Amino acid sequence: MSTLTDLRIAAVGDIHLGEDVRGQYRKKLAGIEERADVFMVAGDLTRHGTLEEGKLVADELRGLPIPVVAVLGNHDYHSDMEREIADELREAGVIVLDDDGVVIQCGERKLGVVGGKGFGGGFAGKCASEFGEREIKNFVSHTRSIAESWKVALKEIVADERVVLSHYSPIKETLEGEPHEIYPFLGSYLLAEAVDTAGADLILHGHAHKGSEKGMTPGGIRVRNVALPVLGRAYAVYCLTCAEAPPADWHQH
Amino acid sequence: MEAPQYVAARVQQALAEDGRTHELGIRVDIRGDQLFLRGQVSGPEQRERLGQVAHEAAPELHVHNEINVVEATEPGEDEHLD
């Protein structure tokens, strides 16, 4: 017989911290180690992407008793300080993904996390293509190269469970509530296509403050929009139920 | 007189691009000489700044700041994905 264990993932995005709310979000993380095995932050940690805000976020996430994995969001890029912000976070012990992956040991299980900021472009049938002006081609090819990196990272990673962490959305369903006209700036189906091709157990994203929490890729992978205004709570906790491999001397009858 | 749609677009752009706010998801509606701001932000100071930037971008209009401040509550029930 197999036994079931849960891998508990706490997640939030779009915390948009600034000096006026210093220390307040950290208070909400008290006891997170009782509720989750790992904490994932889906981008837009800052408001203006300044180094000062980056340092503040690093302080806010420093020394948590469980591993913290983060990606940056478009706000964190605004002041062209994204590398410096990522360095501050890493110095504080946060794992920052930039279109790559990491394996985290959670008890007996290996959790693979792949991701990055992601980007826009729109959704199948209503999206930009690599055609025409250089600016449009650059826009679409940026998303395409991100999706390709995720696909490669997902295929290469050796883990029991795989989660994708993004800022931009891979699907439309979790954008419901946002004006349709801005969907191309909120995500791209290329991200979902890449993850469906390589396989994963869960995709987490933020960015769409007025969107909806729950959706699914065309390939059936669960997607959760964890933007703080969508959740309305400090973080959500998703439990991946993992069937443990039966012992070697176990035979089915 | 400038069409209200263009004024609203200019105010929305100011809220997104002004260094004090950088807030993207705020809805701006204009009816006559009244300007309405709606949306959600994480703190009362950000709400005040948005009202101020909107006022500066359209000083001839009366600003109604109807933005909600979202307080993140304690984490709720876990979701089991199986």
From TrEMBL, chain B:
Residues 3-71 form the BON domain. InterPro entries: BON_dom. It comes from the Bacteria. PROSITE patterns: BON. Pfam families: BON. This is Phospholipid-binding protein. It comes from Nonomuraea aridisoli. The lineage of its organism: Bacteria, Bacillati, Actinomycetota, Actinomycetes, Streptosporangiales.
